[in-house]
Design a protein that fits this description.
Elements (H helix, E strand, L loop, with lengths): L7 H11 L12 H4 L12 H15 L7 H25 L6 H18 L12 H9 L4
Helix pairs in contact: 3-4, 4-5
């Protein structure tokens, strides 16, 4: 609040000193988030890593648009769960015992992630994105 003895020039200086300019958006310095690397560790040359990359790319290509950061996290989890399911299926094929609870948990996780991302053979259509609908109603997306 201005005091009665303050000149208009002094009031402007006080206002500019207290107002904060809009902070610039932080740069993404994480190589995994920016897409320069796929894994936190390792180079991705093992058989499992190559299969994980193939699964991840196939799921990403099934999306109708470029994935958001949160969708990217879901895609990575989906690829990991799918790879684990393939390993369990290979163990079953060789007659080795498998953990049934882990198999069911991974299959349920895979199904829920695919439904959430809107990919796969789900009988019900994917739920519309409420943020995208709001942006469309407001005229921000044309």
């Amino acid at each position: 609040m201005e005091s009665p003895n303050t000149t208009p020039a002094q009031a402007g200086e006080q206002q500019s000193a207290t107002s904060t300019p809009t902070a610039p958006r932080p740069r993404v310095t994480d190589r995994v988030t920016s897409g320069k690397r796929r894994f936190l560790r390792g180079d991705g040359r093992s058989r499992e890593a190559r299969r994980w990359i193939a699964l991840h790319d196939a799921y990403r290509d099934a999306l109708p648009q470029r994935p958001t950061v949160s969708q990217g996290a879901l895609l990575r989890t989906l690829a990991t769960a799918s790879l684990a399911l393939e390993v369990i299926a290979a163990q079953q094929a060789h007659g080795e015992p498998v953990d049934d609870e882990r198999l069911v948990a991974l299959a349920n996780l895979q199904s829920r992630l695919m439904d959430r991302l809107g990919i796969g053979g789900s009988s019900e259509p994917p739920k519309p994105d409420p943020v995208a609908e709001h942006r469309k109603r407001m005229g921000w997306d044309k």
